[in-house]
Structures are given as C-alpha cells and as structure tokens.
Amino acid sequence: MSKESQPESVLLCPLGTAAAPETELLCIFGTGDMGRSLGQRLLQAGYRVVYGSRRPHSCGPLPAGTQVMSHAAAAKLATLVFLCVHRKKYDFLETLAPQLNGKVLVDVSNNLKEDVYPESNAEYLQRLIPGAHVVKAFNTISAWALQNGPSDANRQVLVCGNCAEAKQTVVAVATKLGFAVLDNGSLSAARELEEFPLRLFPEWRLPLRLAVGLTATFFFYLVIRDVVYSYVEDGKDISFRIMVSLANKVCPIVAIIMLALCYLPGVVAAILQLYRGTKYKRFPDWLDRWMLCRKQLGLLSLGFAFLHVLYTLIIPFRHYVRYRIAASTILKMRENTTAVLDTTLAWRTDSFYSMGILGFGVYILLGITSLPSVSNALSWREFSFVQSKLGYLTLFLCTFHTYLYGWNKFLSPSNYRWYTPPGYMLSLVLPSIVLVLKLLLLVPCVDRSLTRIRQGWERTDPEDASKQALLM
Amino acid sequence: MSKESQPESVLLCPLGTAAAPETELLCIFGTGDMGRSLGQRLLQAGYRVVYGSRRPHSCGPLPAGTQVMSHAAAAKLATLVFLCVHRKKYDFLETLAPQLNGKVLVDVSNNLKEDVYPESNAEYLQRLIPGAHVVKAFNTISAWALQNGPSDANRQVLVCGNCAEAKQTVVAVATKLGFAVLDNGSLSAARELEEFPLRLFPEWRLPLRLAVGLTATFFFYLVIRDVVYSYVEDGKDISFRIMVSLANKVCPIVAIIMLALCYLPGVVAAILQLYRGTKYKRFPDWLDRWMLCRKQLGLLSLGFAFLHVLYTLIIPFRHYVRYRIAASTILKMRENTTAVLDTTLAWRTDSFYSMGILGFGVYILLGITSLPSVSNALSWREFSFVQSKLGYLTLFLCTFHTYLYGWNKFLSPSNYRWYTPPGYMLSLVLPSIVLVLKLLLLVPCVDRSLTRIRQGWERTDPEDASKQALLM
Amino acid sequence: MSKESQPESVLLCPLGTAAAPETELLCIFGTGDMGRSLGQRLLQAGYRVVYGSRRPHSCGPLPAGTQVMSHAAAAKLATLVFLCVHRKKYDFLETLAPQLNGKVLVDVSNNLKEDVYPESNAEYLQRLIPGAHVVKAFNTISAWALQNGPSDANRQVLVCGNCAEAKQTVVAVATKLGFAVLDNGSLSAARELEEFPLRLFPEWRLPLRLAVGLTATFFFYLVIRDVVYSYVEDGKDISFRIMVSLANKVCPIVAIIMLALCYLPGVVAAILQLYRGTKYKRFPDWLDRWMLCRKQLGLLSLGFAFLHVLYTLIIPFRHYVRYRIAASTILKMRENTTAVLDTTLAWRTDSFYSMGILGFGVYILLGITSLPSVSNALSWREFSFVQSKLGYLTLFLCTFHTYLYGWNKFLSPSNYRWYTPPGYMLSLVLPSIVLVLKLLLLVPCVDRSLTRIRQGWERTDPEDASKQALLM
C-alpha cells in the first residue's frame, strides 16, 4: 500500500464505524422459521435487527430485542434487507420498489422442488425491483445452523450477485456470523445456488444403481450355482454359506467389474478421438455422462474391495472353516500319510495373497488422493499421474490377483456346473478387455498421434473449415 | 468490468507500484522472537523492514538488512505497523498516538492464559489509539512457521478488524508471505482469535474423559468377572487373557455405548420438542453441551471399533487359540467321534461376523464424511442424510451384531458369575433404548407433528404471546 | 456498511451492469488448444469472446459464436485480454503497447521445462508492456478442465499480479467460470505459479528414493539370510516364502526405520540449538532438507506399516501355515503328549500383538491429522501436540512391539546365521537411538534451557553483537 492511498483509507473508515460497528441495523422481511433463526444469530453477532411483516402486531414470537414494523417502515431504516419469504409471495415487493431502491436485497429463499420456475428466485426478484442490488446468499445454510452456528456441512455461505459492493456487504455480515464465504460470481449463478440444498448425491445415483444391480445379479447367479445346485444334485443344504462365503464372492466380483467400468470410458474416448482425428467434436452423451461418474464408480468399487478384505480376513475363525480343517487333520492322521508340502501351491496362493494386498494398498492410495482437500493440493499433472498410472496399476494387480485365484480351474469342466462359468471368470472379462485396449493405446505410434490430438492438433477436415467460414 | 471503470483502475494502480511494489516499507514494534521471525520473513518477501525499539542500540541481533530506531521515528516512516509486544507493555503506545494516527496497526499479540483480561488485546489497543486502524492478524501463526513458511497447521492467517481498507492491506501482506487468509469480520472477533492458539482440543475433553471412564470401568469389571473369578473359583491363572481377550471385550463395549450416546441426545431433544410443542425454547444446558460433542463421541467410538476389528482379526494366530484348537482336534481324534457340522451354529456365527463387517463398513463411511473437506462439499441435506440415516443403520447393525454374539447365552445362568451379567449385556442396554425410542419417533403421526414443529410451527401458547407483547 | 457509503455503492454499480452483466466482451490472443478451450468456456458462462490472431482468416476451427480479428483490433475492443501464446512469441506484443495500455493482461502461459528463462513469463510480459496490468492466472488449470468445468485437482485458479483492481476483475471472471480463486499476492509470485503445473511430487522424491533403497537392501539381505542360507546349508528350497514371509519382514523393518528417520532430525536440531545456544543460526542444509520431508517420511512409513498389517492378517490361511499347524497337531497326537499351555509365551505373544495394534492405531490417527483439511482446522498447538507427543508414542509402541518380537532371540547364537544379525535387530538400532536421545532432551534442566532458546533467548555472543553493530 503506497503512502498516497493512505488518506483515502482514512476517509473510507470514519472513526465512527471503527469505534462502534456493532450498532449497524439490518432488516429482515418474513417472520418464519428462517427469518427468526437469522434474526437471532444477527442479534448474537451484535447487529440491531428490525423485522418487516404484513401483520406487525400478530406475527408470533420473535427473538427478544428485535422490532417488528410494516415492510415499508422497516425497509426505510436499513441499507441491507434479508428476504426470508417464499417466492410466490414476492409480488408484494413491487409496491416497495421506491423504499428498496439502491438497497442491498439478500434473497435467502429456496424452492421445495427443482425447476418449478423458469428463472431463479433471485433473478426474478432482481427483475421485480431493478433498482435494488439483489444478492443470493444463506440459502444453502439450514435454519438449525443459523441458530447453532457453523458446523460441518453448514460452514460455507455461497454468495452470488451482480454488484460487487453489495456482495462485499453481505460477505462482511456472513463472516461476522462466523461463516466462510464462497463467491460464486454474478446473479446468473443463482439457479445453481438454489438447487444446491435440494440435491441428494445426484452424481452418485447412476453408479449406485449400477452397484446394486450388479450385486443383485451376481448374488442370485451364485446362489443358484452353489446353494441350489448342491441341494439339487447332492441333496446337501449349504445355505449357511450365503452369509459369508457368497458375500465374499459377490464383493470382489462387483469391485473389479466397477473398477474396470471406471477406466473403460477413458479408453473408449481415446479410441474415439483417434478415429475422429480431433478432440473438438463432442463425445456422445452416454460417454460424457459415463466419464463424469468415473470417480464415484471408483470409490464404490473401493468400498466393495474393502468389504472383500474384511470378509476374507475373518475366514479363519469361521465355525465351518475350523470344522473343515480339524476334519482334514484327523483324516491325514487316520490315513497315516506323511504329508509333504506342495511348494507350487504355496507359491501360487502366497502370490495370490500378495497381489491382493498390493492392489488394495495402491487402491487405498487412490481413494485418499480423491479426498477434496488432498486433490486440491495437487497439481493436475500430479493428480492425473496418480489417478491414471496408479489406477491402471491397481486394475492390473487386482486382475492378476483374480487370475491367480482361478489358476488352472479354467480348464477343469467340473467347474462349469449346469454349463455356467464360475463368477470370477465372468468378472475377469471386462478388466481383461480394458487392460488389453490400454496396452494397444500405449504402442508408441498410437500413443504419439493420440498425444498430438490431445494437444489440439487436428486431422485437416475441409467441411469443418467451411463451417468456420460461415460463422464470420 | 465496464470500460468506464477502466480509467479509475489505472488511477488506482500508478505504474510506480506496478513496476516496483517490492520496495514497500513496513514497521515492526518489538524485537522479540515474533518480531525477528516476522521481520526475517518480510525481508525474504521483498519488503523493507524497520524496527521500533525502546533501546534502539541494545536490542540484540536482528535480521541482516533491517534498521532499528525509536518507536516514534519508525512509526513515522511506515503506513503499516506490526505490534509484536506483550499486552502489558501497551501503555507506552498512548504517547505515540499522533504518529500512529490513520496508520494500520497489526496486533500480533497472544496471551499466555485465557480470560486474563476483560477485553481482547486488539480491542484494548483500539481503545488506546482510537485514531489507528487496528487489525488482529498473524497471532495464530507460530514464530517457527514465520521463519520456515506456511505448512500444515500454519497455513491460514486469521484476520479481523473494523476497517475494510486496513484489513485489505494486511491481507495483501499475508498472501505475499504465502499464507492463506481467512477474514473473521470485525474487531469484536479478536477475543476468539486470541483464544485460538491457546486451545487444546476443548471440544474433545468431555468425550475423551467419558471414553477413559468407560474403558476403566469395564476393564476392572471384566478383570474381576473373568480373571479374578476363575482364579478364586477354579484356582486357574488366566491373567494372560488380559492383553488381548479382555481388551477385545472392552473395546466393542465402549464403542457401542459411545455410539448410542452419540444418538441419544438427538432423540431426547426430539421428545423435548414434542412435549414443549415448540423449537424456540432453549434446551437445558447439559443437553446443548451434549449435542455439540456428538461428532467427537462418534469418532472416538469409531476408534474403539477400529481397535476391536484389529483385536478380532489377530485371534487366529494367538498362541492360546492355536493351543486350544490343537487340543480340541486331538480330543475329537481320541474320542474317535465323527464330527458333524452344526449348520445352525454356522449360520449364526457367520451372520454375526457379517453384521459386524457391514456395520464397520458403514461406520467408516460416516467417519470419512465427517472430514472437514468432505462435509464442506456436501449440502446439509446430504450431510444429515448420511449422519442420521446411515448413522442409525450403523447403530442397528452393531446392536444386532452384539445380540447375535449373545444369542442364547442370555438365558443360561452359568453366564451370571457372582450374579453379575456379562459385559456385552450391559453394553446392549443403551443402544436398545435409543433404537426403540427412534422407532417410536418414526411412527407417522408422531413424525408428522415433529416435522411441523421443526419447520417452526408452534402449539399456541398464550403467556408466550404476552411476553412478546411486552417486548414491543 | 454505513448509510453514507451507500450512495457511492449505487454509483459503483450502475444499473446497466446490474441488469445485463452477461454481455461483457473479453479478448483472447492465441487460437491454440488453451485459447479455444478458454473461449468455449467463457462463451458458456455468458461472455462474448473475440480472438486476436496473426492470421485471422486461417487460424483453424474456433468455438461457434466467437469472432477472429487482428490482435490490434481485438485488443481495442476489450478491457481484458487473455494471452494464450508461447512466451517465445511475446515480442510481437511490443508493437501493441498503445492498444494494451491500461488494459488487464492475463498471462496464461506455461513453460515446458523449469528454469529455462531468467525471469517468469508474466514479469517478462510486464516489462514488455509496462502500461498494462499483467495478471498471472489459469496457467495451473488444464485445457481439459476448462472444457469440462472444475473438478478435483482443477478447482483452484491461482492468481497473482501487482494491481489489485486488475486482479479483482480476473477473480470475477474465474469465479463466474466456477473456479475457486486463491490470491498469491504480487507478480513476484508468478515464477512459483509457472512452476506449479510442472512439478511432480518434488517433496516426495527424496523419501521415496530412501524407501526404495531400504526395501531393496533389506530384501536382498533377507533373501540371502533365509532362502539362500537354508538352500546352501540344509539343501532345502524355501523360496516360496519370498512372496509373503519375506515381504512381511521387509515391510515392518522399513516402516520402523523410516518412522525413526522422521523423528531423528528434530532431535538433532534440538541438540544443535543447545550446543549453539541460539535458534537464530541457520541449520546446515542437509538438516533443513531433512526436516522439510519429515511428513513424507512419516506417511510412507505408515504405508509400509499398513502393508505389514495386511501381510500379517493373512498368515493364518496361508497354505504353508495350515500345513505346519496340521503337522504339529499330528506330531503332538503321535507323541501322545498332553500339551500344557505355556502362559509366559501366551503373555509375551499377546502383548506383542497388543503393542502392534495400539501402535498402528495411533499411527493411523497421525496420518488422519496430516490431511490438509484436518491440519488446517487445528491450532498449531494442537497440531504439534498430535505430531510430536502422539508421534513419539507411536515410535515407542512400535519399537516395544519389535523388542517383544525379538524377546530372548537376541542371545541365542543360532539366530546369527553366517554371523549376520536378523533383520529386526538392525531395524531396532535407529529407533532405540532416537528414543534415548529424546529421553535425554526431556531431562528437566536440558528441557528448560532448550525451551528458553526456542523462545528466542540467546547465550550472549560478543562477535555476533559486533556484526549487528556493523549493520547499523
């Protein structure tokens, strides 16, 4: 700050405000839940609060220390007006246009459903009172949080508006109430802000449905192949295996399939770009949607992998397992065979476990780097390195892990009960495809041209150029 | 930015500053540790630094390249003065009022204990020199961080002050030193900022005490019931079981009790609101305090659950367990009984494990969503969905898990050694109560009226209205 | 906001801008990948975009709805110009100085390698056109993110520049595009911003190399001691143990050594400060570098500890282990010995497991608190409490865990095959040293003087004072 700009700064902060900034008066329209909570909090933060109400004398209990008066009177007093009223009641505001002219008007409203109105509440409000500086804020904060202070999901106040000055005023109030403010730009972002409190994991829906679908399918498939089969063929009831053995078959299957599904779209996109020779043509919608939920696919898959690990680790103290082991020991005893260690088997099972452990380890790493605070701290070169390089490593390790599990069972016909392949074989199809395709894309010549395309190079394309010509 | 505002912007940034902004001069009062570290860092960031000292010629070594002079002289030179002096020495500043008039005065001071003074240091300072623009900043940053640059807990500089301009100046300096700035509003937040560096997990104390208490209680209870009992009654020394077996009994017990304690206050609050017919009466303090530490209760409980999982998973390779298994196998052998698999037992134990695994899985999910960066990214609808819906699911799964563990033992008197119930039975009391109460609250009619109350509706309450009347 | 400042705010937001802020025109120099992606996104956000190009009529396909014209013409139209051109082409801008005078010039450029130029691109640009307000921004965002909107590592736009006004304009655009902006101060930070996208975990390199080195060393050491040894001496092939048994020996060894290495520098620094009697002398470079990668050392060590846990937990269902157990059971059977439980062994092994579990538990806690979002929420008192107190607790528990593992093996010569000590003994050296040194530093008198030094006190040092004298 240079010396000459100093006097101005003095001018901007008259000692009056510096000495007693607490005494600022704010106005709230609406005495509903939101209005009350907001008023309460403003009082605690040291503001004076006046309510504007249609029926000033019969609007129910309000925070002690506040005043209630007609909208017009209240609006006159304050330079900042919070609007805690349902959108459908906005029309009464038009009559207040003169009083609200040049004032900061904070739209706190939310709708009960998405897309009920053509334009956002805030923009509608701005249209009603063009003279006011409408700012959208606090609508992402729950009334509960306003009463009890910021916490967890109620720490950030999202703000948007066209007038920087007005926004600054609201930011000051919000920070004073203890919230962290995130500026979302101009009023055109209002719709987004109004949809925020209504959303319930939209980006997770598709992946979740997929996960549920896969789980159900494979569960029934395996129930039939294992439980029903052995009941029909051998008349044995092994239904008790559903709780753990089957669960521990379904989890890894779903996990690896979803992991593959998380890397497949990337490969498809690359092939598409190679085929089209440009990156500037939009992808088909299904591919776009697919690519946007890769993260969720990956995290869900990690969840299933986690369950798989737990289900595996409890194996040794299952009653059934202990029974089997004791039985086999006794059998060995009886047969009086001097057992020898099958080192090949030892090698195979041990590497099978090792691959699983390493795969899971890298997978956990992927999960950690996709935490918002971690990924924000990474440069995108670092992030893409982790997510693609380590991601494919995970996929490879897990696939290898599954192949080692299958080992030579692939050949023995006894595994194809009722002519159906075992679950893990089905689960191997997708991952294998993805890995093979990825390998093809890594062939130097292919890789080179793909890189060039990704850097913006395009195969010359006459009718495209002509299109461009028309535009000018 | 519209064209017409352009000239002004040019005016605001004279090319001088644009060309050489490095050469700005800042003043530091106080040559102690904080003063030195701050000066050093400012120099590195390209500022010129001048120190104000009472004894300019005998104030020990200062960063090379800085000057030392009398307070008055130093204050005259700079428009921004850092105050790195203990509060009790502030009085000398009054004499400097004229030189500090209109200057930005950054109060960096911290106290050694909380609540020693009636008002915060910064507000006291503002009172001493009403002409200066006092800004509280950098007090939450350690001297070490100032010497070595921002890291982990020393990245955010909290700032508060009454003059926006002055704050902006300080923000500029802080960002230039590489810190991220968080504006905490007006000077009235100064006390909070000054207490920040002193606090040591205040919100964790109560839950931690509780956890320690519960652990100790149940530990001794179980030592008596198991070790002492079998020593007295059967003369067997099974003290070796303390390290794992007992630990693995205490952990889950404490975990599930604390989980229940984390959801109990919510239920109590709901009942209270139903009974009062309003949400605008304050809860009793104990309930408020309880509700504010729910998160900590939950996380501690998760910690115990985590230990429980680890303790369980190492069971199979405990020396004692292997010994027992071998013994039982040999016994079977000797008796020459052809053992048959008890499928009911298999069913029960397997579902017991399954419930535990699923419960733990959902629990981990809860833990992840309570990470600051994750919860900040969620809308409060999403957050409350996860924390309440999934939270109760966790509680249910874990309770069910414990019931399956008990199974039919509840009836056999042999379990009530010395007429005391086993630990897991005691641990089941609270969770069961919470779940039952929650179920009652979910009964449609109850749920409906509760929702209405939570939306701000109130059972008409005459004397409350009259109170209101008195207020106006 | 006080009433009197209100009119001004009205003045600053003419209704024109409030009504239609969308129609703002922005200019982009350069029609490459970055330029196109940026233009596309700006269009979507409701800006009008005009491109400046050397060959306006042959610059390939551009986003529909944009115009292309000569640099001069384009510059005239807009008050904000994005510069998406390689640094080496900057010279053509000098001719445009008059048109760019007083305009906001956003430098988006990145270099392909670090430190190729003496000064940062942005500073070079400012030198070329002193009349423009150069702002460095968007260079940390990938073109892909510009096309598809902010995500993970592409959410934060880092901005720096000398003119606050100009910066504010860019911030407004960035927030409108949906990015979160982080102000990095003056243009002198430009180099840092330009190096950001190029970096690939620089702070992790050293620790990673160390980890790889240690792993390799101990792996070969153990292969020779176990596999090769038993092959040469007993002619037995136990190579199958490499996959799990050896891995599970290497992991914990590397983990505990790196944990010790993470706390060693702190101890060394303390001793150095005690010896020098001051904290104001710089540490030798190697120590500085070491201290700065402590966090990474700790996290890598945690990774190895995690693998160790997994490798341990799968032990019971390894083929080899089951074989051994069965064999031993059968042996017992044959010998017809009535085995008795060795309670000492039970005590020892159980406490061995317990220590491991508790150590791992606290370790996980350390890992969680080092997540950016968590550590930012902590005061540095809290952070240092966790990292140092709990850190040493972890080190102690893990070391104790290892000693319990060794137990009496230290003495029996049979463990020193080929006169080499087993791996875990080697791994115990460093941790033991660190713990002992730390204990010495905790001796009251030592601790007291260290604290005084850390608070800035210095042992009087004549020639230092004289140095100081010269400075003034």
Automatic annotation (TrEMBL), chains A, B, C:
<dbReference type="Pfam" id="PF01794">
    <property type="entry name" value="Ferric_reduct"/>
</dbReference>
<feature type="transmembrane region" description="Helical">
    <location>
        <begin position="206"/>
        <end position="224"/>
    </location>
</feature>
<feature type="transmembrane region" description="Helical">
    <location>
        <begin position="253"/>
        <end position="275"/>
    </location>
</feature>
<keyword id="KW-0274">FAD</keyword>
<dbReference type="GO" id="GO:0052851">
    <property type="term" value="F:ferric-chelate reductase (NADPH) activity"/>
</dbReference>
<dbReference type="GO" id="GO:0008823">
    <property type="term" value="F:cupric reductase (NADH) activity"/>
</dbReference>
<keyword id="KW-0410">Iron transport</keyword>
<keyword id="KW-0560">Oxidoreductase</keyword>
<dbReference type="InterPro" id="IPR036291">
    <property type="entry name" value="NAD(P)-bd_dom_sf"/>
</dbReference>
<dbReference type="Pfam" id="PF03807">
    <property type="entry name" value="F420_oxidored"/>
</dbReference>
<dbReference type="InterPro" id="IPR051267">
    <property type="entry name" value="STEAP_metalloreductase"/>
</dbReference>
<comment type="similarity">
    <text>Belongs to the STEAP family.</text>
</comment>
<keyword id="KW-0406">Ion transport</keyword>
<feature type="transmembrane region" description="Helical">
    <location>
        <begin position="352"/>
        <end position="378"/>
    </location>
</feature>
<feature type="transmembrane region" description="Helical">
    <location>
        <begin position="428"/>
        <end position="446"/>
    </location>
</feature>
<dbReference type="GO" id="GO:0015677">
    <property type="term" value="P:copper ion import"/>
</dbReference>
<dbReference type="GO" id="GO:0010008">
    <property type="term" value="C:endosome membrane"/>
</dbReference>
<keyword id="KW-0967">Endosome</keyword>
<keyword id="KW-1133">Transmembrane helix</keyword>
<dbReference type="GO" id="GO:0006826">
    <property type="term" value="P:iron ion transport"/>
</dbReference>
<keyword id="KW-0479">Metal-binding</keyword>
<keyword id="KW-0812">Transmembrane</keyword>
<dbReference type="InterPro" id="IPR028939">
    <property type="entry name" value="P5C_Rdtase_cat_N"/>
</dbReference>
<feature type="transmembrane region" description="Helical">
    <location>
        <begin position="296"/>
        <end position="314"/>
    </location>
</feature>
<feature type="domain" description="Ferric oxidoreductase">
    <location>
        <begin position="253"/>
        <end position="386"/>
    </location>
</feature>
<feature type="transmembrane region" description="Helical">
    <location>
        <begin position="390"/>
        <end position="408"/>
    </location>
</feature>
<keyword id="KW-0813">Transport</keyword>
<keyword id="KW-0408">Iron</keyword>
<dbReference type="GO" id="GO:0005886">
    <property type="term" value="C:plasma membrane"/>
</dbReference>
<keyword id="KW-0472">Membrane</keyword>
<dbReference type="GO" id="GO:0046872">
    <property type="term" value="F:metal ion binding"/>
</dbReference>
<protein>
    <submittedName>
        <fullName>STEAP family member 4</fullName>
    </submittedName>
</protein>
<keyword id="KW-0285">Flavoprotein</keyword>
<dbReference type="InterPro" id="IPR013130">
    <property type="entry name" value="Fe3_Rdtase_TM_dom"/>
</dbReference>
<feature type="domain" description="Pyrroline-5-carboxylate reductase catalytic N-terminal">
    <location>
        <begin position="27"/>
        <end position="111"/>
    </location>
</feature>
<keyword id="KW-0186">Copper</keyword>
